[in-house]
Design a protein that fits this description.
mainly beta, Jelly Rolls, six-stranded antiparallel beta sheet, 2 helices, 39% strand
C-alpha cells in the first residue's frame, strides 16, 4: 500500500524534471537559452583625409551576397593641423550602393579585416561584407536614405592638449534590450558615415568598424 504513493510521486517528479529540462532548450521569446558566438569581424583605418564636400559619404560598409550583416559599432576620432573642426556626423542606411569616387589606400582604407571572436576561422570563414573609405566623393545613388543616428564630432588641433570628442555609433550594447542593430541584406545595401557640413582639408580621421555575419 505504501509503494503505490511512492511510485506515483516518483513518476510525477520524473515528469516535472522532463518539463523543466525543456525550458532551457526550447527557444522562447524573451528567454535567453545560452550564448551563441557569432562570426565577428573588425576593421580599422588610420590617417584618413576625408572628402571636404558637405553631405557626402566618407566611409561605408556594404552588405553581403551570402550573409546577413549586422553593424555592431563604428567609431571615429578626428584631428586637424590648422583649425579646430566641430561638425555633425550622420550614419545613414542606403538601399542602393554608392558608385564611383576614389577609395583611400594603405592604412586609411578599412579593407584589412580581422576576425575578433574565438571561433575557429575555418568555421567562421572570411568576411563577406566590404568596406571602403573615400578621398574623392562617390556618386550617391540613394538620395533618400534612412537616417540611423547623428552625433557631433569635435576635432582639435593635432598639437593641442585638448581631447577629441569622437563619434561612437555603438549598437552592440542594444542587444541587451533586444534591439536590432543596423542590418544589411544583399550587396545593394550600405551603412555609411556622412558629414553634414564642409570639412577642412587638414582633417585626419582614425577609427574602426565592427560587425557580425550570419
Amino acid at each position: 500500500m505504501i509503494k503505490r504513493p511512492i511510485l506515483g510521486a516518483l513518476g510525477l517528479l520524473a515528469l516535472c524534471t522532463s518539463v523543466l529540462a525543456q525550458v532551457n532548450t526550447v527557444p522562447q521569446i524573451g528567454i535567453g537559452t545560452g550564448y551563441i558566438e557569432k562570426a565577428t569581424y573588425s576593421s580599422a583605418f588610420f590617417g584618413l583625409v576625408p572628402v571636404v564636400t558637405s553631405g557626402t559619404d566618407q566611409i561605408c560598409i556594404t552588405g553581403s551576397a551570402s550573409k546577413t550583416v549586422r553593424v555592431q559599432r563604428i567609431t571615429i576620432y578626428g584631428q586637424t593641423t590648422t583649425a579646430t573642426q566641430n561638425v555633425a556626423i550622420n550614419l545613414v542606411k542606403r538601399a542602393s550602393a554608392d558608385t564611383g569616387g576614389t577609395p583611400a589606400s594603405t592604412t586609411a582604407n578599412p579593407g584589412v579585416v580581422t576576425q575578433i571572436n574565438r571561433r575557429d576561422p575555418s568555421v567562421a570563414g572570411t568576411a563577406t561584407a566590404t568596406l571602403v573609405s573615400y578621398t574623392a566623393a562617390p556618386t550617391i545613388v540613394d538620395t533618400a536614405p534612412t537616417y540611423i543616428d547623428s552625433q557631433n564630432m569635435f576635432s582639435p588641433l593635432a598639437a593641442s592638449v585638448v581631447a577629441a570628442a569622437p563619434v561612437d555609433f555603438y549598437f552592440g550594447r542594444d542587444l541587451e534590450n533586444n534591439l536590432a542593430p543596423p542590418t544589411l541584406n544583399g550587396v545593394a545595401q550600405q551603412v555609411c558615415v556622412n558629414n553634414a557640413a564642409t570639412l577642412t582639408n587638414t582633417n585626419l580621421w582614425n577609427g574602426s568598424i565592427t560587425w557580425t555575419e550570419e
